[in-house]
C-alpha cells in the first residue's frame, strides 16, 4: 500500500507533493513520486535524487519515471502498488474554468483504482 503523487515543478505540483508527504507520514506508508516524463531522464534523476534525500528522514519514498502521460502513469502506478491514495494538485480557475476540469485531472478522478485527494493552491 502506498501514496502516489505526480512530481511537477508548478505551485500546484509542489502543494500536492507536500500534502502527499504529510499523508504518507501520518499513515505510515511509503510514498511513490511519479515524474512527468517530459524532461530528459538525467535532468529528472538529478532533481528527484535531491528531494528523495531531503524527504528520506520524513517518509519512505521512491521515484517512478513517467512516460509523458502523467494521468496514465499515476493510474498505472497506483494500480501496481496497491495505492491507498493518489494526490493531485489543482490550480484556481475562473468561474467559467470551474465548469471544465483539466482533462488529466478528470481522467485520474474517473479511472483511479483508489481515492483521489485534490489539493489547490
From TrEMBL:
<dbReference type="InterPro" id="IPR014729">
    <property type="entry name" value="Rossmann-like_a/b/a_fold"/>
</dbReference>
<dbReference type="InterPro" id="IPR006015">
    <property type="entry name" value="Universal_stress_UspA"/>
</dbReference>
<dbReference type="InterPro" id="IPR006016">
    <property type="entry name" value="UspA"/>
</dbReference>
<protein>
    <submittedName>
        <fullName>Universal stress protein</fullName>
    </submittedName>
</protein>
<comment type="similarity">
    <text>Belongs to the universal stress protein A family.</text>
</comment>
<feature type="domain" description="UspA">
    <location>
        <begin position="2"/>
        <end position="120"/>
    </location>
</feature>
<dbReference type="Pfam" id="PF00582">
    <property type="entry name" value="Usp"/>
</dbReference>
